[in-house]
Amino acid sequence: MNKFILVLYSLFLFSLSSIAEVFEDTIVVEVLKNKELSKPLTNLEYNYQSTERVPVKLQILETVSTKRNSIYDGKQLFFKVKEDVIYNKNIVIKRNAVVKARVASYTTKGFNGLPASINVDNFEIQGINSNKITSNYTKYGLNFAAFVLPLKWALTPLPPLGTFTNFILGTNAKITPNDIITLYYYPYWDER
């Protein structure tokens, strides 16, 4: 009898998931039918023979934090170049040049000491092909997980105390003008 109920239940779940897939596909087609989609920037076709790189030091113009409600995915950020970027005795990027970037994603602080994070991507430097720049920077808050998890296991034999460690939070992530962000410019990376 139990096997029969189990078979009926699994058939029900299978049919439910099939219906959900068809419904989801139709919604996706309807939403995307009239939208113009652009191809994302891909960094797959590089000439990796040269690993020569030039550091580009950046400084954000305005503080960004996960503590405030002003941060969101896709938010445009502005940086300035901290010092002249020189390659082969030529100035490739001038000091104080403005660099645009976007918040690719962010996470808020979590239980068990997990920190918040801000991931910045799509750096655009005027006059430089964006495929020749490492364009990803992530800033984390303080991570207390290495402290919380051993404490949690130590307190587990005492029933209510181990669960209280779940409420210890990590800290917010913040990018301030005091932070120096280093990206790298690869002059010999080229598109094929």
Please describe the structure with a list of short key phrases separated by commas or semicolons.
192 residues, alpha+beta, 6-stranded antiparallel beta sheet
Describe the structure.
The chain is of the alpha+beta class and 192 residues long. The protein contains three helices and ten strands; from the N terminus they run H-E-E-E-E-E-E-E-E-H-H-E-E.
Given as residue ranges, the uncertain stretches (5+ residues, pLDDT < 50) are none
Task: Write down the overall mean pLDDT.
Answer: 81
> What gross morphology would you assign?
extended
Counting DSSP H or I runs of 4 or more residues, the number of helices is 3
Q: How far is the N terminus from the C terminus?
A: 65 Å
Strand order of the largest sheet: 8-7-6-3-1-10
Listing every helix as H and every strand as E from the N terminus to the C terminus, the arrangement reads HEEEEEEEEHHEE
Report the count of strand segments. Answer: 10
Strand content: 25-35%
Structural class: alpha+beta
Q: Give the radius of gyration.
A: 24 Å
- Estimate percent helicity: 25-40%
Biggest sheet character:
6 strands, antiparallel
